[in-house]
Amino acid sequence: MLSPHPDDSERFAALRHDMVQDQLEARDFADERVLAAMRELPRHLFVPPARRMMAYADNAMPIGEEQTISQPYMVALMLAALQTGPEVVALEVGAGSGYQAALLGMLCRKVYAVEIIETLATRAQAVVDRLGLENVHIVLGDGSLGLPEHAPYDRIIVAAGAPRMPEPLKDQLADGGRLVAPVGGRHDQDLIICERQGHDVSTTHGVGCVFVPLVGEHGWRHGN
Ligand code: SAH
């Protein structure tokens, strides 16, 4: 499915296999579609070149601009909670390196991923393009406002911690749709899952997590 990439050697493939086995399967993570995508996607292409050998470690990692690529296990949990499928149109808020957006591209029909920092958005789009993921569109902008021009979305995933669930994201959720976001304090959040049935949006609380702050209109601003 992915275009072959000259920088994806057998050595990285072995590290990736171990990542899936030791960090996901060993923790009883069993979503087969997510496991298959994470086994295939070269995560090291999404981190700065000097950090490539550490790209498959069991932690989040700096990607520049004071931002991070999330820990593989957290990405897996988020994607499993989202419940993707081949017909799904998905929105990601906080594209960062583009890693999770690329996984979404392998799991969904179409993906829009909004990133507020221009250098990261440009870099993420370049990696996604080189891998031939034509259904993944990185958009520069404030994703706390959603992306009204392509709404509604069957699935929405937020990859930065919000002080409260941004209302525009709930509004842009399709009927039967599902929204997963870390919501809470600046330094620790709960994974919140919203589901829309007609005009009703139900909310459930999942695991505790730690994400970099969501900024922008409905994110963290000076004084809140
Ligand atoms: N999903 C990413 C990791 C996200 S880190 C990956 O796979 O690498 C969180 C990202 O959210 C950062 O890049 C940050 O710049 C971005 N961000 C924070 N607030 C945002 C907003 N309002 N709109 C869009 N992106 C935002």
Protein model, in words:
By secondary structure, the protein is α/β, with parallel strands linked by helices. It has one domain (10-209): Rossmann fold (3-Layer(aba) Sandwich). It is 28% helix and 27% strand. The protein has 6 helices and 9 strands, in the order ααββαβαβαββαβββ. It has helices at residues 10-24, 32-40, 72-82, 99-107, 118-130, 167-171; strands at residues 61-64, 67-69, 89-93, 110-115, 136-140, 153-158, 173-184, 189-197, 200-209. The strands form 2 sheets. The chain has a 7-stranded mixed sheet. A two-stranded antiparallel ribbon has the order 1-2. Strand 8 (189-197) and strand 9 form a beta hairpin. Helix 1 runs antiparallel to helix 2 (32-40). The longest helix has 15 residues, at 10-24. The radius of gyration is 16 Å and the shape is globular. The mean pLDDT is 95.
Task: Fill in the keyword field for this structure.
binds S-adenosyl-L-homocysteine; 224 residues; single chain; 27% strand; 7-stranded mixed β-sheet; two-stranded antiparallel ribbon; 9 strands; alpha/beta
Return Rg in Å. Answer: 16 Å
CATH architecture: 3-Layer(aba) Sandwich
Major sheet: order of its strands?
5-4-3-6-7-8-9
- Please write the CATH class name: Alpha Beta
CATH homologous superfamily identity: Vaccinia Virus protein VP39
SS content category: alpha/beta
Q: Tell me, rounded to a whole number, the average pLDDT.
A: 95
Order of helices and strands: HHEEHEHEHEEHEEE
| Backbone shape | globular
The kinds of small molecule bound in this structure are: S-adenosyl-L-homocysteine
- Strand count, sense and closure of the main sheet? 7 strands, mixed
User: How many angstroms separate the termini?
Assistant: 44 Å
What share of the residues does DSSP label as strand, in percent? 25-35%
| Helical residues, percent | 25-40%
